Amino acid sequence: MRYLCLPYIVLLFFLLALPLEVFSEDYEPVGWVTEVSGVATVAGPEEEPSTVERGTEIYISDTIETGPSGSVTMELQDGSAIRVGEDSTLKVVDFLYREERGMNRSFFKLLKGSVRGMLNSLFGEDSEMSFETPTSIAGVKGSDLLVWIEDGHTLVALNEGRGFVRHRDTRFPGVVWLKRGWMIKVAKGLPPGKPFLVPPHIKKRILKFQIKRHRELIKKLKKLKKLKRKRLLKRPHLPPVPPPFKRPVKRPGPPHKPGPHHR
């Protein structure tokens, strides 16, 4: 059995020899939950859902679900923010934030319900936040977007900045651009409708769908994450690898001579 331990020891040395960036890149969270109300859960691939709390880390491939009276607000590494509305399901598909390359892009999948995204446009055209629904892909190059699914249709309202919408059906190619204060409806099997001004009742909905920011909390969480990562990845001083175990061999002793009591 001890021979089997040797490959694991070699593997451990190999992992410890890797640069810290390899670990931190793979396990860096997309962001943190800063506000929770009602029932809300989060689950990674092949994981059981766990209750969302303030400070919960969110990673790529996580799925957030809220109950009929629940909502979740999370702030992202790049300074953007998202609020998942009640009775909604949102999956984090991809997140890319490279300050040294001047790029921040995020991609989410809204399976049901509603979501509001506020993009931190750090790098102009290289800043983007997109949401895929059953009928469309909508996003912002500017700042503030509200997306929701209603009766199988997707509705997109742009509160700030510049937004875009394209149909998932390849029969309807092209992109429709939205201006501030405009919205659009995308139905299954039909080309996207024409943009129209956000009506008063939708404006009220946007106002109620506020995102409360917690910048000081995020600073603390980022600092804690950094310290935790350093602690986990600190390279310990390992003892030398012991030589392979060898079973002792019994060597024959001198021939037995009968004692006096055997005579």
Task: Explain what the structure shows.
With 263 residues, the protein is α+β, with helices and mostly antiparallel strands. The chain has a domain at 31-214: Jelly Rolls (Sandwich). Helices cover 19% and strands 36% of the residues. The protein has helices spanning 5-17, 20-27, 200-208, 215-233; strands at residues 31-37, 40-43, 50-51, 57-58, 63-66, 71-76, 81-84, 89-98, 103-112, 114-118, 127-132, 136-140, 144-150, 153-160, 163-167, 176-178, 182-186, 196-197. The strands form two sheets. It has a nine-stranded antiparallel β-sheet with strand order 4-1-6-7-10-13-14-17-18, with helices on one face. The longest helix is centred in the last third of the chain and has 19 residues, at 215-233. It is globular and about 50 Å long. It starts with a helix and ends in a 30-residue tail after the last helix.
Keyword list:
single chain, 263 residues, alpha+beta, Jelly Rolls, nine-stranded antiparallel beta sheet, nine-stranded mixed beta sheet, 18 strands, globular
* CATH topology label of the domain at 31-214: Jelly Rolls
SSE string, helices as H and strands as E: HHEEEEEEEEEEEEEEEEEEHH
Binned, the helix content reads 10-25%
CATH architecture descriptor text of the domain at 31-214? Sandwich
Instruction: Outline the low-pLDDT stretches.
Output: 7-25, 232-239
Give the overall silhouette. globular
From the alpha carbons, calculate the radius of gyration and give it in angstroms: 29 Å
How far apart, in Å, are the first and last alpha carbons?
48 Å
**What percentage of amino acids are in beta strands?**
35-45%
Q: Pairing-aware structural class of the strands and helices?
A: alpha+beta
- Number of DSSP-assigned strands: 18
Averaging pLDDT over every residue, what do you get?
A: 81
Number of helices: 4
Q: Strand arrangement, largest sheet?
A: 4-1-6-7-10-13-14-17-18
- CATH class type of the domain at 31-214: Mainly Beta
Main pleated sheet: 9 strands, antiparallel
